[in-house]
Every structure is written in structure tokens, then in C-alpha cells.
Amino acid sequence: MFDQYLKSVVGGEYLNVEEAYSSAKMLLHDNIPVVQAAAFLSALRTRKERALELGGFVQAIYEEAVKIDVDMELLDTCGTGGDGLGTFNISTLAALIAAAAGIPVAKHGNKAMTSKVGSADVLEALGVNIMLSPDQARMLLEKVGITFLFAPQYHPILKEVGPLRREMGVATIFNFLGPLLNPCDLSYQVMGIADYSMQESIALTMSKLRRKRALVIHAENGMDEFSPSGRTRFYDIEDREMKRYDIDPIDLGLDPIPLESILGGDISVNTRIAREVLDGASGPFRDTVVLNAAAAIMTAGKAPGMKEGMQLAEEMIDSGKAKAILLKMIQYSRDGVTAC
After folding, report:
1. CB-based burial of residue 168 (10 Å sphere; 0-12 exposed, 13-18 middle, 19+ buried)?
2. Topology of domain 75-328, per CATH?
3. pLDDT by residue (tens digit) across 40-52?
4. Which of 14, 23, 54, 94 could make a disulfide contact with 205, Cβ separation 3.0–4.6 Å?
5. 203: Cβ–Cβ under 8 A, 6 or more apart, which residues?
């Protein structure tokens, strides 16, 4: 059967949901020969995966995920990464600010795969214990209002394709699936996409995932975040209806910020930037985080629009509430108690 799927995609045909689901299951369980598996994934990537194919893969992998059941309307800000621009950990800081604003956040993430520093790397360097069991992660969410879900612990089945992906050394469909596989049942999501050609397909896939509202974003300069440098295109999915918008920082009262002003570095650099932003330092790093936190706050219904979301994000930083959330997250993840 896999031979048939391989011939289809190599010939430029598209798979339906059932075929994509079956091919994913075979890749994960059937010891498909490396040459065939690599050819299949390469052919998908060359002609670009469509929403039905993404949906089939999501279904196949999510069935085998370790899941966390909580009675909250949750937000995630996990993106695909891979834009290659070297910015700092914007969405991680946006998640902390959203949590400070009273939005329960289930931050799904990993160590660096396509960048120098992943969300897991920077949170761990800041002092958060990222190696929590699912029960511990749920308790952290309930006690603090934010948790971190270290992707490998919730999707152990993906170890089966790890050697293949490393041997191929190029992006495959698996690079786009992580943000769609949060172990919690999300209500809200802001997902950045590095590959513009995949944005609409990801948005269509997102529209099938029962989110109350989600944004799928890609900036003209290639960022998988809302860019402070120029226009960002985003799909706004609400009640399964999808609309496309463009937004410019000038529209929000921000002077454009050159990309080189918001570059990160290694783990020590990105950790320093995170601490400075949460300590209230002004400048391009803060402005970029505020812009992206505003999108998360708006998406979760805590602000009617981006401008109001930016104002609330500023308040969360200047009041010290965002920093306090991080400190509570650190203490509870390590000691099982929260700071007063």
C-alpha cells in the first residue's frame, strides 16, 4: 500500500485525509525502507503539503500522543520556527505576558531544532524545570496559570522517524506539525509559519481543530511572528470561519524596527534579553514582544483589538506581573510551591 502512496505523490497527485493518515501510520510503525520513506517525504515537500494531508498526519500522530485533560480555555503561542533570521524567543515571552493577563497558557515547545535557541532551551536557562510529568505539568498550569509541555515527552512515537529526519537533513511535513499537536485541547492559538507557501494550508488545517479562535501568521520579512519591521499577513480563524488580513506596525502606532535590532544569539544572549524585557527595559525587544503578546491577548478575548492588547501587555510588564509569572513558574516547577 505504501508503494501506491509513494507513486501518487511522486507523480504530483495529492492524498486525501484517509490516505495521508494511513501513510503516516505506516511511516511510524511499518519499518518502511529509508529510501522509500525519504522519497515520499521529499516529494510531499517539493510540491508542498496541502491541508488534507496535514490533517491526516495530525490525526495519526495525535491519536498516539500523551494528552492532558484540563477544564480551562487554553492558549498556545507555539510556531514552526525555521525562519532562519536569528531573532530571540519572542513567542515564549508573549506566552508569559498572556498568562500574566489571566489567560491560561499551555506552552508547547522543544529544544532548538531549526534555530539556535528553542523555547525549552530559554525557559530551562531561566530556571524552569521543563522535564515535568504530565500530572506535574497539569498541576503547574492549575497553580500558576501557565505550563510548559516538552514535546518529546508527549509524542514519543515521533522517535520512530527521528533517525530518518536527521539523515535527510531537510525540512519535511513533520516540521510543520508540532504546533498543531498540543497535548491539551486548546481554545485559542497563535501560530507563526516560516514558509509563506504553507500558510493557507496550515490555516485550513487549523480551522478543523475546534479552536474558538486562532491566528496563523507570516511576516513579509520572513518572520514566523508579527513583525515590527513591516507588514504581516495573518489568517484569523474564528468559529471555523477564516479571513485573511494584513497589518503594519505603523497602523498600530509603532515606528518600524529594523530586523537587525531584534536579533538574538546563543542561549546566554536570549536569556539576557528575556530578563531585560521582563524587568521593564524599553527598546526594540520589548516593542516586539508587546506586539506579539497583544495578538495572543486579542485572540483569547482579553482585548477587543491589537492596540488594546498592546496596552494590556505593557501593563503586565510594567506592573511586574509578567516577571512574577515566570518566578512562580520556576519555583513551582522545581519545588511544588509558588512564590508569594
Report:
1. middle
2. Pyrimidine Nucleoside Phosphorylase; Chain A, domain 2 (3.40.1030)
3. 999 999 999 999 9
4. 54
5. 216, 235, 237, 242
